[in-house]
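User: Sequence for GTPase IMAP family member GIMD1 below. Tokens please.
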Amino acid sequence: MADRNEMTINLVVLGRTQTGKSAAGNSLLGSSDFVSHQSPSSVTTCCSLGCSCRISGIIRRNGCELALRVRVLDTPSYPHSGLSKEQVRDTVSSALAQHFGEEGLHLALLVLRADLPLCPDESDHAIQFIQELLGPTWKDFTAVLLTHADKTEEAGFSEEAYLHRASSTLLSLLSSVQHKYIFLDNQKSIIKEERAIVLRKLLNFIRQNNYQVLLLKHSKE
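Assistant: Structure tokens for GTPase IMAP family member GIMD1:
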């Protein structure tokens, strides 16, 4: 916290190439800090930290309204088209320690595409990668962000219907993180009201975790 009237939440976005990590980070920040576009190869090659302006009307604690700041760490994808797993892991681990080493991490957001099925191998690789980054308590500090939800809506699926038809692999992953998940409509995420809904859901996850943070140290320390 910068002061008693302000709260800062620290987030990191993780996921495969072209899942929309950088776009999701921009949506959370309400900006265009991170480069995001379609590409035949991985776009993000290094970590980048973005910070939002003060946001009002989102959170109240002890009967008082607090201004909110959102800090998002954008990361290279894993698997990556130009970097090895070790290079990605070391880059992300170092950036987490550098930017959130003192204040701690509130949530890691595993970004998945809602319009593509989640296969067991992909889920296993993602979980292993997050475990290596965050350690044994990763489940408490991880939420799933399902992007491209607008495409599932166009296909006639509500969130409830989508989850009813979802693969056992995805349902198992959501269960492991205590059902901390958010559907992100890529068409509406730039709208202020939609962004507020997403931020309130993230804050609810953080509140359920008693505002705990994950303290991260560099792997070489």
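The CA atoms of residues 110 and 144 lie 5 Å apart.
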